[in-house]
Write a structure and sequence with these properties.
The chain is an alpha/beta fold and 474 residues long. It folds into two domains: 141 residues, Cobalamin-binding domain (Rossmann fold), CATH 3.40.50; 299 residues, pyruvate-formate lyase- activating enzyme (Alpha-Beta Horseshoe). The chain contains 18 helices and 13 strands. The strands form three sheets. Strands 6-9-10-11-12-13 form a six-stranded parallel β-sheet. Helix 11 links the parallel strand 9 and strand 10. The radius of gyration is 22 Å and the shape is globular.
Length: 474
C-alpha cells in the first residue's frame, strides 16, 4: 500500500467487567475520510473492535504495508501502545502518536516513548495530520521534523470531511443500555462543536472527545447535513460527541431548529451539564429528538463541587440539577447521572450523601467512576508525587493511591454500594420497565440487557480488571 495506517490501541484485559460502550475514534475517522478523498491509500485498524493484543494488531497493520502509522491510545493502554510503536519502527515505518497518551508522556515521562514514536501530536490531530502526512509519506521525518510538536487544535471544523460509517460499524458502536422507546441498533457519531470553556480541575482528555477551552462551533446547517448523510446510510440514532452539547445556547437552539425544520428528528444522546438545562434548551432538545442526556453531576457535596471548579456555588449546583431533571422529566427526555468517588479530600460520608441524593433524582441510569489523577488534569501539578497515578491507570480499574479522606481500598466498595443503592430499588425497576420494556421483548436485547443491569446492580463489580470499562463515555 505504501500509504497510511491508522491504529487505535486497546487494553489487553481478561473477560468480564463494566459494560463497555464501544465508540468510534472520530479523529481517526475524519483523517480516514480526508485521505480517501485525496486518493491516498489508508487502512483503519481499530483494536477496540478487533480484540487481541499488540502482536495481532501490528500484524494487521503490516499486512497493508503502510509507510506511516498513526497510533491513538490513552494512559490505560500505554504498554500496548509502546509495544506497537516499537515494533512498527523496527519494521522501518514512521510512527506518529496521537490521543491522550501524548498529554501523559509530556507531563509524566514514559520509558521507551522515543523508541516507539518519531513524532507526537497533542490535542486535536486532524488538521495537523492532514498537513503533515504528505511530507511524511515523501521524506524521512526523523531528519525533517523535531521529536515534539506543540499542542494542536482544529481551527476550522467545517472544512473537515464527514466521517463515514458502515452499517457494521454502526451496529458495533451502538449505545449499550436500553433507552426509552424502541431498540436502536445502528448508531452514528457527530461533533457539532469542539472545545469546552469550563475549567473543571478533574477533567482529562481520556473522557473528552475534543481538546482546548476555546469553543469552535460548526455551522448548524452542516451538522444537519451530516446527520442526514448518516440517516441515509442506515443510522437509526445519533450520538453527539461534543464535550457538552448545550454549552452555547444560541448554537444549540439553532442546531435543534435546523433538525426540526428539515425533518431530521431521530433519537439522539449527548453530554450536558445540569446548569445548562433551562426551559428553552430542554424544550428544544425534546422537540429535536433527544432521548438521553448524560449529565456530569459528579457529586452532591457543595464543597467538592466548588473545589473541582464545576460551579462557584455548590448549593446552586444541587438546585440546578434537581430543577433541570424536573424539566427533562416533563418533556420525556431521559437522563444518565455521572458521579465520582475518590475525589481529593472526599469523605465516605460525602459519598453516602451523594448516593442518597442520587436515589431521589429522576435518573434513568447512574455511572460511577473512581477518580484517577491523569497527568493532563488541572489538579496534577498540585498533587504529591505519591498520589499521582502511573502508567496504565484507569478510572474503572484497581486503585492503589488516593487523595480522598479514606483508604484506596474503600473506593471500589463505595462504588459498588452506590450502584446497588440505585439499581436495586423497586422505583428504578418500575421506571426502567415502563420506559424500556420493548428491549426485553427482543431476544437480541434480552440477555445482554439483563447482564448489564446485573453488573450495575453489583454482581460483577468485584471482578473488574484494568481497562475493562467504558472508555470515555458510558
Amino acid at each position: 500500500m505504501n500509504g497510511v495506517a491508522l491504529l487505535r490501541v486497546d487494553r489487553v484485559a481478561g473477560s468480564g467487567g463494566h459494560p463497555r460502550h464501544l465508540h468510534p475514534a472520530l479523529d481517526l475517522k475524519v483523517v480516514e475520510a480526508a485521505l480517501v478523498q485525496a486518493g491516498i491509500s489508508v487502512a483503519l485498524v481499530d483494536a477496540w473492535r478487533l480484540g487481541g493484543n499488540p502482536a495481532t494488531w501490528v500484524e494487521r497493520v503490516l499486512a497493508v504495508r503502510p509507510r506511516v502509522v498513526v497510533v491513538k491510545a490513552e494512559t490505560w493502554c500505554l504498554p500496548e501502545s509502546l509495544a506497537c510503536g516499537i515494533r512498527l519502527r523496527q519494521a522501518g515505518i514512521t510512527t506518529v502518536a496521537v490521543g491522550q497518551q501524548v498529554a501523559h508522556a509530556r507531563r509524566s515521562p514514559v520509558a521507551g516513548w522515543r523508541d516507539a514514536y518519531d513524532l507526537d501530536l497533542e490535542g486535536e490531530p486532524e488538521e495537523a495530520l492532514l498537513g503533515l502526512l504528505p511530507s511524511l509519506l515523501a521524506s524521512n521525518p526523523a531528519a525533517a521534523i523535531g521529536s515534539m510538536c506543540g499542542q494542536v487544535h482544529v481551527a476550522k471544523p467545517d472544512t473537515l470531511p464527514v466521517p463515514a460509517f458502515t452499517r457494521e460499524e454502526m451496529e458495533a458502536f451502538a449505545f449499550p443500555f436500553p433507552l426509552r422507546g424502541k431498540p436502536l441498533r445502528r448508531w452514528a457519531y457527530v461533533l457539532s462543536a469542539r472545545g469546552c470553556p469550563h475549567a473543571c480541575r478533574h477533567c482529562s482528555v481520556v473522557v473528552r472527545k475534543s481538546a482546548g477551552e476555546r469553543l469552535r462551533c460548526r455551522d448548524p446547517r452542516r451538522v444537519a447535513d451530516e446527520v442526514a448523510a448518516h440517516l441515509d446510510a442506515g443510522a437509526e440514532a445519533i450520538a453527539f460527541e461534543d464535550d457538552t452539547l448545550l454549552v452555547d445556547k444560541r448554537h444549540f437552539l439553532a442546531l435543534c431548529g435546523e433538525l426540526v425544520r428539515r425533518g431530521l428528528v431521530l433519537p439522539w444522546i449527548a453530554n450536558a451539564r445540569p446548569d445548562e438545562l433551562d426551559e428553552d434548551r430542554v424544550a428544544a432538545a425534546a422537540a429535536a429528538g433527544a432521548t438521553l442526556l448524560k449529565l456530569g453531576i459528579e457529586t452532591g457535596s457543595p464543597r467538592l463541587i466548588e473545589a473541582m471548579g464545576k460551579c462557584r456555588h455548590g448549593e446552586a449546583w444541587r438546585i440546578q440539577t434537581e430543577a433541570g431533571l424536573a424539566r427533562l422529566r416533563i418533556r420525556g427526555v431521559g437522563a444518565l447521572g455521572l458521579f465520582l468517588v475518590g475525589l481529593p479530600t472526599q469523605t465516605a460520608e460525602e459519598v453516602a450523601e451523594t448516593r442518597r441524593w442520587a436515589q431521589g433524582l429522576d435518573l434513568d441510569y447512574v455511572q460511577v467512576q473512581i477518580f484517577r489523577a491523569y497527568p493532563d488534569i488541572a489538579w496534577w501539578p498540585d498533587m504529591p508525587a505519591a498520589n499521582r497515578d502511573g502508567e496504565a491507570a484507569y478510572h474503572y480499574g484497581p486503585v492503589a493511591t488516593t487523595m480522598a479522606a479514606m483508604p484506596a481500598a474503600a473506593l471500589p466498595r463505595l462504588q459498588r454500594r452506590f450502584y446497588r443503592g440505585f439499581y436495586l430499588r423497586p422505583e428504578f425497576a418500575l421506571s426502567h420497565l415502563r420506559h424500556c420494556w420493548r428491549h426485553y421483548c427482543d431476544p437480541r436485547g434480552l440477555l445482554p440487557g439483563l447482564r448489564r443491569l446485573a453488573y450495575l446492580a453489583g454482581s460483577g463489580a468485584a471482578g473488574l480488571r484494568v481497562g475493562e470499562g467504558v472508555p470515555g463515555v458510558v
